[in-house]
Amino acid sequence: MLAIVAVAFVVACFSSSRYHLFGDELYFIGAGRHLSASYADQGPALPLLARLGAAWWGGHLTLFRLPGILLGVLSVVLAALTAREMGGSRGAQILTAVVAALSPFVLLQSQLLATNAVDAPFWAAITFLLVRWVRTRQDRLLLFAGLLTAVDMQVKWLIPGFWVALAVAVAVAGPREMLRRPALWLGGLVTIVATLPGLLWQADAGWPYFRLTGQVAAEGSLTGGRELYVPLLLLYAGPLGAMLLCAAVWWLLRDPRWREYRFLAVTFLLLAAAVWAVAGRPYYAGGLYVALIAVGSVELARRWPHKRGDGGVRVWARVTLAVGAIVGMVAVVAFLPLLRQSHIQAPRNMAAATLQTTPYGQFGWPELTRDVESAVASLPARPDAVVTEMYWQAGALDFYGQGLPTVYSYSRGYAWLRQPPDSARHVVWVGVDDDASKYCSSSRLLKHVGTDRIGFPTASTGIDIRYCEMRMPWSHVWTSMRRM
């Protein structure tokens, strides 16, 4: 088991050490300079981690991304522990850990300091506590689950969906006794109290977090939307993970031996259906992968042919597992950032870039910053501000920029960090939309950043840098300009 964890840690460290800061990471660093009880699109945890990481990372990406790496490896450990709680043999625990480590969602997401890299391990830990409660009926485990939920709410607000689906699943499939335990509701009360400052911030800001649904749906349409939801949901689990996940759902629903844990399958199905209905991202329900992989591994180990007369079945079972493991390792290698930057080609189109957001979202930011600095230097008078169409751009200019005017963005969380003063009439505008023509009395192109270099189209490449004279005061338009 230690060998599996060690390999997982090495792979995660290698993945995180490649290329450059991702667009979201640059945004987190920028948001971390404006610490708050909440942000428009998330809780305060990631900006705080990014601020701390940026203060001591020393240019080493692995150190900056270390929290996500450690939590990703913890997910592998929790997978094995969950299998043990379900009565799994040592072989079942090892299989669970291996399959979890081969899952693109469980481990490879930790190559970035991202909300999912922190959120998903919390789901895995909460599910582990619930599974352990089923076996031991120790109510303090329900309280601990509530405490972890309170912490996870400082990352992102997906976990309430988990608890709603869980409550319905337990009411339908049992064990209903869980819902009658005071410790469970005490944990919920702690979560509400811990989240109250964020809720008050959101209410004062007009609840921008709930405007994310439409934006996520629009972004998801570029990668197939609802039509490809199920295939992508299984793809994120990995080849072996997808097989065990599907088998686990079937066994949980059909096999009486798994009655006590049936709520896991019902919770997963309810969550997956809800995410599909709102056109959310397929991996939103991925926090339950670990528990379902554990179920599949334990039951597979139990059903493994042991009798002498089962030799043929045993051979086929071994071949199936071996092929699945090989395909899984190939898939992991395909996800690893192995190519040198000089060997990476610019994306053919927006859809290709969206499918490979993780690598392309790490390129082009220093070059864009130099382009904006050059554009600012070319003007006869220093502009009052720099305004960007996308929050990634603002984060990059804030992080890499030297001597730039104050940077603002009307995109995502940056739009609520700060607003340009009305005195900022002469600005440099960075983006691709025609917003400049709508809000500027006059504008002229300073530089066009083409798509011939590596980067993410409409973000670090394929954009215009313009000089703009504002048509009206910012206080009259900023609220309507904000978008998630």
Task: Write a structural description.
The structure is a single chain. The chain is of the alpha/beta class. The chain folds into 2 domains: about 1-15 and about 60-335, no CATH class; about 360-480. The chain is about 60% helix and about 5% strand. It is built from 23 helices and 5 strands. It has helices at about 1-15, 25-30, 45-55, 60-65, 65-85, 90-100, 115-135, 140-150, 160-175, 180-205, 210-220, 230-235, 240-255, 260-275, 290-305, 310-335, 350-355, 355-360, 365-380, 390-400, 415, 435-440, 475-480; strands at about 385-390, 405-410, 425-430, 440-450, 465-470. α20 (about 390-400) links the parallel β1 (about 385-390) and β2 (about 405-410).
Brief overview, please?
Helix content is 60%, strand content 6%.
